Description:
Blueprint: H1 2-24, E1 32-38, E2 45-48, H2 50-53, E3 60-76, H3 77-83, E4 89-94, E5 100-105, E6 128-140, E7 146-151, E8 161-167, H4 175-203, H5 224-233, H6 235-266, H7 301-321, H8 324-327, H9 333-348, E9 363-368, E10 376-383, E11 392-399, E12 407-414, H10 444-457, H11 473-493, E13 497-505, E14 511-514, E15 520-534, E16 541-542, H12 547-553, E17 557-558, E18 562-574, E19 584-597
Parallel strand pairs: 2-4
Antiparallel strand pairs: 1-8, 2-7, 3-6, 3-7, 3-8, 4-5, 9-10, 10-11, 11-12, 12-19, 13-15, 14-15, 15-18, 16-17, 18-19
Amino acid sequence: MRFVWAVVAFVIAAVMIGAGIAQRTVFQGPSETTAAVQTEGTTAYTLVDGALLTSVPGAQTLRVEGDGQVFAAYGRTPDVEAWLSDVEYTSVTVDAEGVVRTTEVEPTAEGTAEATARSPIDSDLWLDEYEQTGTLSATLQLPGDMSVLIASDGTAPAPANVSVTWPIDDSTPWAGPLIVGGGIVLLAGLVLYLLGIRHVRRSRRPRRKGLPLPATEPISTVDGGAAKGVISDSPAGRGARVRGALGGRRALVAVPALGVSVALLAGCSADAWPQFAAPESPSPTPTVVVPEGQFPPAVTEAQAQRIVSRVSSTVAQADAALDATAVAERLSGPALAERQTNYKLRAAIPDRAALPAIPAEPVQIVLPQTTGTWPRTLMTVVESADAATPTTTIMMMTQETPWDPYKASYVGNLEASTNLPELAAEYVGATQVSPDSNFLVLAPEKVAAAYADIINNGQNSASWSTFDTANDLLLAAIQDNKTKRTDELNQTGAGTAEISFSASAGPAAPIALATLDSGAIVAVNVYESDTAKPTNADAVIKLDNNPAVKALTGVEQSATGFTTTYSDQVFFYVPGQGSDDQIRLLGYRSSLLEAKVSP
Length: 599
């Protein structure tokens, strides 16, 4: 019966081990699948749609082969399509049957001469980009609402050979248990087989009885070899030799069986075993209530950090070279105007200080506008990494079209004691408040004029109680400047000159982004002007102690006087309609803008 069970064990072991090995060899499926795309190579751009990228679950490995420069970038599909709207491009997608389709798309927007030679490199629209020579390979994990743009340099045809590869789960979780289990059953069968052999040999052993010797006949001990022969030929001696041989064979047979099991076990990798531990999953993000139909934020946090870094780098290079053209690539409006004036002054006055640099990191706050169109607005707060000059910079940046970079139009410094209102997370974004909005205590388009009226009239202004003037450091700085300018004129003019001051709303349009408490952060531009004039016909205003005005006007004195204008970039928190809170100053930047001879 032991032999029967041994044979059954051998059969079961063979089936289990064979099934386990087969799962790891002949029955194991492919580890990946690939969708190859061959375009005609007639357009400068190829758009790989998110529908193709997500047609198979899992991470996507993009491979692009070209003859020279190969460029790839990904972003939200509407953004990429908007960037391509004025040029012809090849669209690659997948239909309902899973068949890859390529289509040449005609321009839908009015093209420009620049569009035919526009480089896609370093566009602020891309979430990330890659660039190689010859062959480009990148592993992505994009959702269905994102697409990949492929190009060379924006002029030559895009690379024609494109493929997307996805991994396939080819794990065999039962191969390991089957092989190891088969090895154990095989070992058990061998044990049963050896026990059967032992039983058979014992059952076939001679059963002889020893003859009685005469009591008076001694056993011969003369021949020691004969005595030894009697002992070795006795049943007991033979049994000892049989048992010794049997034990040796059992050990020699059991060792190969154990070796086979160990060898098979060593060949099984982790994917040949069941995984009982729960797979790791990303930590859930905080629950956010997004209004139905709201557009996504214009940029992600990573995009914003990259944009700030580019703005900082461009402005720093322009500051060093006093390049007004280069700085216009990343600044506009009041921020650009103050920089251009500073370059003129530094070129004429060697010891004239440069404006504070725009820090690149760390970016503390990112507040993008939620929109699907252009222009787009982005607010950031960046701390200076320079311990010698610690500053916190607040900026309002705008992207006018899909093809333009973000440009900072308002740049100011937050006060150390400033408490910003509660803002939405960067992945939610904020709506842009229209200039004439009635949902705030004061419409954004009226804030600059109201603040200018406070500068002009002080407590007699109708807007005095609307603003938190008690904690307004800019008003105090403006008053100090007025006193200083008046004292300087009285010292040099000796009663022959007078100075007047006035403030007005600047020409730049306000920018406002909503806060979570229904208020808004509003950036406005205010002009401060002072005019110095002589009080009699024989007097003149000299600029001996004012090299800045002298450099901007190009004269040393005037009989009609001078008008000097300062530009203030001011950031306010404006509460929502019905709130009892006052409009509060958050930060500002004030700098000399222009000077001219009075008419």
